[in-house]
Amino acid sequence: MLNRRNFLTAAVGVAATAGLAACAKEDGSSSDSSSGGSKAITLGFAQVGSESGWRTANTDSVKAAAKEAGFRLQFSDAQQKPENQISAIRSFIAQKVDVIAFSPVVVKGWDAVLKEAQAAKIPVILTDRSVESDESLFVTLVGSDFTDEGRRAAKILEKVLEKAGHKGKVKIAQLEGTTGAAPAIERAKGFKEVMDAEHKDDWEIVASQTGDFTRAGGKQVMQAFLQSNPDIDVLFAHNDDMGLGAIQAIEAAGKKPGKDILIVTVDGVKDGFIAMSEGKINAIVECNPLLGPQLMEVVKTVHEGGKVERWIKTKESDFMQDQAKDALPTRKY
Amino acid sequence: MSTPSATTPSRWRALTHHHLFWPVAVLIALLLVNVPFTPDFFAIRMADGHLYGSLVSIVLFGSPLILVAVGMTLVIATGGIDLSVGAVVAITGALTCSYISDQADQNALAGVFLAMGIGLVAAVVCGLWNGFLVARMGIQPIIATLIIMVAGRGVAQLITDGQIITINSEPYKLIGGGYWLTLPFSIFVVAAVVAVTVALTRRTALGLLVESVGGNAEASRLVGIRSMRIKIMVYMFCALCAGIAGLMISSNTSAADGNNAGLWIELDAILAVVIGGTSLLGGRFSIGGTVIGALVIQTLTTTIYTIGVPTQTNLVFKAAVVIVVCLLQSPKFRAKVFGAKGRARTTAPAEPATPADAAPKMEVSR
């Protein structure tokens, strides 16, 4: 009796969860409808998931660009699980799509499935993130250069300091992304590269800690930084959200973000631009999720048998405070 | 324990045997660790019309954890566990913020209260579901609450559409990030919740009932305690606490982040409960201990940031401190380490003394 009850509850639970999943799926594939004829290129795209606003913008961009280009898009959301992504790619192979594109959830473990794609003669394009496997198994990577974003952040900081009229020593606090994540490691690396090469004597990172790419993390860590190093001049945050959290911490300490403490962040989400237009962020290094159009171009070239570069970097720009107001209406995410 | 002793050693012994002694000692030790690195760690000054300092921020950022941990304490006291609190935090924040962001006037008090009401009702419904599965359906608490832990975060993301919802509402900002009488407003919320919880569990028979259900649910039922109802109630209470914490977390940053709000807070809360001396086996609990436990965890986090532990070793440092705290909590370990003089005494009287003093004090009066 009790067992049957347990079973029933479990069944209801599973059904409810499956129902939710189904909703999400339906929602996700609503724009997949083919807009071309039978000759249109079919693109299988396996997305990481929808873990952040950046990712959502990335997904929307891919979907819109595919529609624009007249491709048939098979879209799959892996919900941050590599095994989901592998099975999605296998089903793309079974459906004999023309090109497969995906943002690998993790760096390793793709050899087997990529070999299957190669055997089926389906070209594979990576987007946003790279993999550690045999280079012959994928055609190209369309995505950002995180190390370069770090370098650009350091370069734009020079301008920010100059504009603020800051002289002498610069004490920098760094809010790192999630420990071990590629963007966090590489942005820190790129920034340090420029710092060591050109500002060995005058710049110093006095505090550096992870804020997990979240606002709450950024706020909490910054609050502690302000306590241990009250004389911080500059904050370099690995993404806008941590910067936004830090701004609140700086305000709570009775200081003015953007004036008493100069702030440089990476990403360029809408809320970041709003803060910049209010003068609270001094400069933003863009990390562009809207790589859909670029991806579709590459897909077309690859499908027609053309040659492409191994790494196609996303088109990105840097923004200073005075550009914030003009750029704000164009921010889609 | 309460017998007044004339000699200092026995008074010292009474002190060290108090169930809150070790958690408090660790808390003080952790706070003192900061002083060499930040000499003015304890300094509190006025900034922007409110008190400002490390101690203030520990309480401010620790408030949500204290709330979640207090709710968790009662669930654990009934022999259960609630893994869904983090997801409930996310759902509450998401619902409330998305409702507020739809308002024409985000500063309207009525809208803010309604939004908070919606969020808290959703939280309590989650708790009701957990309690229903555990008490009525007899599903293992760890499995039953796992459902919302996993699915809830997805629900929160559906509500926020995968985006971070930013709001601009002054009244809502008060609950988790604002100040009242120069103190963080969240302190008053936490104090109120803790006071009500202590009053309900220690001034009425409720605490005794919770402990008896945790001690032996079947026996409690046989003596006439409605153990199912008690269990459902504690899960609902726990979810309500998590809901309030969710309001605080989203209010603190004026944003609802379905993906990250309250992430892993369930583990911190369980840890806080354990550090506070509540047994995971159920049957007895200490709200005061839990509050201290949560403060220990928050102080540890702040300490890591202030003394500049390298990012890569954060978790190792945290784990090391937690191991020390847990070992200090273990009477066996203390007997082994703190010398032969204590051994004869500690093993014999300490064992029976601890449950007797932590457990019901109120049954005489009722």
TrEMBL record, chain A:
<comment type="similarity">
    <text>Belongs to the bacterial solute-binding protein 2 family.</text>
</comment>
<protein>
    <submittedName>
        <fullName>LacI family transcriptional regulator</fullName>
    </submittedName>
</protein>
<dbReference type="GO" id="GO:0030313">
    <property type="term" value="C:cell envelope"/>
</dbReference>
<dbReference type="InterPro" id="IPR006311">
    <property type="entry name" value="TAT_signal"/>
</dbReference>
<feature type="domain" description="Periplasmic binding protein">
    <location>
        <begin position="49"/>
        <end position="300"/>
    </location>
</feature>
<dbReference type="InterPro" id="IPR025997">
    <property type="entry name" value="SBP_2_dom"/>
</dbReference>
<keyword id="KW-0732">Signal</keyword>
<dbReference type="GO" id="GO:0030246">
    <property type="term" value="F:carbohydrate binding"/>
</dbReference>
<dbReference type="Pfam" id="PF13407">
    <property type="entry name" value="Peripla_BP_4"/>
</dbReference>
<dbReference type="InterPro" id="IPR028082">
    <property type="entry name" value="Peripla_BP_I"/>
</dbReference>
From TrEMBL, chain B:
<keyword id="KW-1133">Transmembrane helix</keyword>
<dbReference type="GO" id="GO:0022857">
    <property type="term" value="F:transmembrane transporter activity"/>
</dbReference>
<feature type="transmembrane region" description="Helical">
    <location>
        <begin position="83"/>
        <end position="101"/>
    </location>
</feature>
<keyword id="KW-0472">Membrane</keyword>
<feature type="transmembrane region" description="Helical">
    <location>
        <begin position="261"/>
        <end position="282"/>
    </location>
</feature>
<feature type="transmembrane region" description="Helical">
    <location>
        <begin position="141"/>
        <end position="159"/>
    </location>
</feature>
<keyword id="KW-1003">Cell membrane</keyword>
<dbReference type="GO" id="GO:0005886">
    <property type="term" value="C:plasma membrane"/>
</dbReference>
<feature type="compositionally biased region" description="Low complexity">
    <location>
        <begin position="346"/>
        <end position="359"/>
    </location>
</feature>
<feature type="transmembrane region" description="Helical">
    <location>
        <begin position="20"/>
        <end position="39"/>
    </location>
</feature>
<keyword id="KW-0812">Transmembrane</keyword>
<feature type="transmembrane region" description="Helical">
    <location>
        <begin position="232"/>
        <end position="249"/>
    </location>
</feature>
<dbReference type="InterPro" id="IPR001851">
    <property type="entry name" value="ABC_transp_permease"/>
</dbReference>
<feature type="transmembrane region" description="Helical">
    <location>
        <begin position="179"/>
        <end position="200"/>
    </location>
</feature>
<protein>
    <submittedName>
        <fullName>Sugar ABC transporter permease</fullName>
    </submittedName>
</protein>
<feature type="region of interest" description="Disordered">
    <location>
        <begin position="346"/>
        <end position="366"/>
    </location>
</feature>
<dbReference type="Pfam" id="PF02653">
    <property type="entry name" value="BPD_transp_2"/>
</dbReference>
<feature type="transmembrane region" description="Helical">
    <location>
        <begin position="289"/>
        <end position="309"/>
    </location>
</feature>
<feature type="transmembrane region" description="Helical">
    <location>
        <begin position="107"/>
        <end position="129"/>
    </location>
</feature>
<feature type="transmembrane region" description="Helical">
    <location>
        <begin position="51"/>
        <end position="76"/>
    </location>
</feature>
